[in-house]
Predict the structure.
Amino acid sequence: MKPLVLLAAALSLALVGCQKKKEAPAAPASEAVSRLFQHPGRYQSAGLYMPSRLWTQLADAESGPAKPGAPKPAIDPASATLNDDGQIIVVVDSATGEVRQCGNLSGRCVRLNPWARTNVPIALTKHEADFEREEAAEAARLARGASRPTNP
């Protein structure tokens, strides 16, 4: 009889342990997102910008001179170029203070470290003044063409 009582006691304890616990309420999505960004990481977003016409004139996407004698990488004709970039993604490295501007499709980046002793100016194939001279010459050419009388 004693084993039967022990078995009944063990079974009742096991069944009491199977009781469904009260579930914690689900957190709203905004709380889950805010927990995700409590520590945003090393790179902080500074914004998204439209590329200017000078973006397509970058001679070398990495700031600084190219190493002499370094082989040029093979360019895949299907890969995106600076002309394909629709947005410029700007981030700040929170560890070093370096600012990076990268094209969203080409992936080409320009870096600026305000605390570096030497910040080499970014090389461009064409400057804003060149664009302005071309526009002025085109406007003058169109004005000369429009002022000429047309023969019937």
